[in-house]
Amino acid sequence: MQGSEAAVTRDRAAEGRSPIATQAARRRTFAVISHPDAGKSTLTEALALHARAIGEAGAVHGKAGRSATVSDWMAMERERGISISSTVLQFEYRDTVINLLDTPGHADFSEDTYRVLTAVDCAVMLLDAAKGLEPQTLKLFEVCRARRVPVVTFINKWDRPGIEPLALLDEIERRIGLQCTPLTWPVGPGGEFHGVIDRQAGEMVRFERSGGGSGAAIEEHLTPDEAAARFGGDWVRATEELELLGLTGADYDRDTFLGATTTPVMFGAAVANFGVRQLLDVLVDHAPAPAPRPDTEGRERALDTPFSGFVFKIQANMNRAHRDQIAFVRVCSGRFERGMVVNHAATGKPFATKYAHQVFGRERETVDEAFPGDVIGLVNAHALGIGDTLHAGPPPVSYPPLPSFAPEHFAVVRATDSSKFKRFRRGIEQLDAEGVVQVLRSNRRGDQAPVLAAVGPMQFEVATHRLDVEFGVPTAIEHLPYRLARRTDAEGEQMLRTAVGVEVLVRARDDTRLALFLDQWRLRSVTNDHPKLLVAPLLAGE
Ligand code: G4P
């Protein structure tokens, strides 16, 4: 369906909708999942540039050595040039409100990165054309898969030599079982990128860089005959590749995309803004708008019931002078108005929302109203925990807790001053409740030396820093060599009692028994030795 046609259909469907449902229908909330260096920051800038959310390209970068940084606002972030916080970029495009949630990567990859994916309706899987699927992308994709989040694939850096497009599609289908349905197809091999065939429009869009690549790409629309005359061999090759694709039934289908079994694929070069407008159009025309979210009992709360939302991230300020804490809430239903007093479902207590912000990096803008799909940052939200539900008015609602994700790093933490043990215990409990780290215990190690488990090692630094600054407990941390956790049971614990290179601990949060292994080989040899052992994968997103 063409963009304008889709918009008309949407407008028609909007007739008779309530104002809140209409606002929800014009929102798209998504995250980019990628491996470091695939071009996520560049693409984020390019997307925002189209909507003029950020005046000058370069402003989104939060990396060391780059000038303007709006996404690193904590001292620790600035020192290292990394961004700890999940930030939200909101902009309008074609009368649609786009909420782009950041998924921290690099050294700051953490459980928060996964949790962001519980708050989106769609994901853009960004691949480097020369590298294909890379480890971090795969991990994030698994969370999307477990949650059935629809995925649009954007193959980036086509301006450089890369893997053949058909081989890239084959890799995606083979390794993650997602059927590719390209919406655009590159004309010209990697490195000689002339433009893309828009399969639905049946035309070629030729790209040209605008001055210095800092503006939207210049586009020229060509009929097939014009494209054939201009690009000869490259055009013939592209159309032949598409014919091959046609044989495998790789046509876009909205139902299977929304069902997360197929992925629309697009080609581009974020650095030159090539293919970026097409991606925005696909998000607007095809990506899902916020839908009613099921509560703990599986009942869906209609979008136009009073405000409700859940906390998917809590960010504590590392700066001693500003001990505030921001809870990021994804709005699920109703209209949020700053200042409204809402109910905190976990405690039944009222929660005042005087300080509601839209947070993008260091920038905080007061938010006066928000609708389903939006993210609000509540400042001074010390009473709130990860996964908590907030709601206004009847009926009360409680959304399911957020899942715990499979940790890959483990460390024992101890208070260096044993007289501070009480405070230490309180701190550990608090960090566990906030989801900063997962806390694992065992009789063997005792209460004084719990094991902290994390998706990324940065979580340990945040935890020890906060124990020191907020609870006044300096700690010593000893990293453990385990890299793999599997769920087991009481029998499994018994069987593994004497196994070497394995340890069983209990996760405080949900009493799950986790067997920790040094690596895949250890896991394999242990399961060979104990064929009846229960070792279930802790699926990301399980
Ligand atoms: P990340 O956030 O995913 O880690 O990636 P980022 O956007 O920082 O991009 C990583 C590198 O890839 C950057 O180069 C960036 O310019 C480059 N890049 C991004 N998109 C494209 C593209 O479409 N084509 C090409 N050729 N390169 C692209 P860098 O040398 O690390 O940094 P910089 O000095 O260029 O900013």
From TrEMBL:
PROSITE patterns: G_TR_1, G_TR_2. Its main location: cytoplasm. It holds the Pfam family GTP_EFTU. Residues 1-21 are annotated as: Disordered. It is found in: Cytoplasm. GTP binds at D102, T103, P104, G105, H106. Gene3D superfamilies: P-loop containing nucleotide triphosphate hydrolases, Peptide chain release factor 3, domain III, Translation factors. InterPro entries: EF-G-like_DII, EFG_III/V, G_TR_CS, P-loop_NTPase, PrfC, RF3_C, RF3_dom_3_sf, RF3_GTP-bd. Keywords: Cytoplasm, GTP-binding, Nucleotide-binding, Protein biosynthesis. Residues 25-293 form the Tr-type G domain. Belongs to the TRAFAC class translation factor GTPase superfamily. Classic translation factor GTPase family. PrfC subfamily. HAMAP family: Rel_fac_3. Increases the formation of ribosomal termination complexes and stimulates activities of RF-1 and RF-2. It binds guanine nucleotides and has strong preference for UGA stop codons. It may interact directly with the ribosome. The stimulation of RF-1 and RF-2 is significantly reduced by GTP and GDP, but not by GMP. This is Peptide chain release factor 3. It comes from Dactylosporangium vinaceum.
